[in-house]
Amino acid sequence: MLRAARGMARSGMRWHSASSGGNLKVVWVSSDGQKTETMCKEGDNLLDVAHNNGLNIEGACDGVCACSTCHLIVDKDWFEKLPEAEDEEEDMLDQAFELKPTSRLGCQVIMTPELNGLTVNIPRYTRNLYVDGHVPHHH
User: Fold this and answer.
1) DSSP state of 46
2) Cβ neighbours of 136 (radius 10 Å)
3) From CA 111, how far away is CA 120, in angstroms rounded?
4) Entry pTM
5) From its phi and psi, is residue 89 left (phi > 0), alpha (psi between -120 and 50) or beta?
6) Listing from the earlier edge strand, what are the strands of the sheet with 103-105?
7) How many angstroms separate the CA atoms of 93 and 81, rounded?
8) C-alpha to C-alpha distance for 135 and 126, rounded to whole angstroms
9) Residue 119 — φ and ψ, nearest 5°?
10) 52 near 19, Cβ under 8 Å?
């Protein structure tokens, strides 16, 4: 039922840019501490940013807030800049593995200019209640 988060660089910081471009930066920190920077546009959600840049964030429900597989841990310095989570997101977060006070679902965090430079940590595991072993492909 637990799945290891994979796909982050093992050596140094990698720079990715979504095919659609953008001027907002997101810094992703893997469970082993490796950092990857990506660029995105205002209005992009973090799940799509991850998928557009080849980062292995599952998103089993395809970003409709019906699972917790895009669980991310927002850096505490950035957490207060996010709008509060809706009840539906809080319900899904209750199912997340390694839940922290600054946990959010990537599909629910929408990038704004105020979030330029946002740092998020990718948990080592996700809990996929849909089916163990299923790896969805981003459309």
Assistant:
1) H
2) 16
3) 12
4) 0.78
5) alpha
6) 14-17, 35-40, 24-29, 118-121, 71-74, 103-105
7) 19
8) 12
9) -115, 130
10) yes
Q: What 3-state class would DSSP assign to 52? A: helix
Q: How far apart are CA 81 and CA 118, in angstroms?
A: 9
Contact 25, 39 (CB under 8 A): yes
Instruction: State pLDDT tens for residues 107-127.
Output: 999 999 999 999 999 998 765
In tens, the pLDDT along 47-74 reads 999 999 999 888 888 899 999 999 999 9
Is the C-alpha dihedral spanning 22, 73, 137, 89 positive or negative? negative
What residue has token string 């459309």?
Answer: 139
- The two three-digit tokens of residue 78, written as one number: 């950035």
The pair of three-digit structure tokens given for residue 80, joined into one six-digit string? 């207060």
- Nearest 5 degrees, angle CA 49-CA 89-CA 73? 55
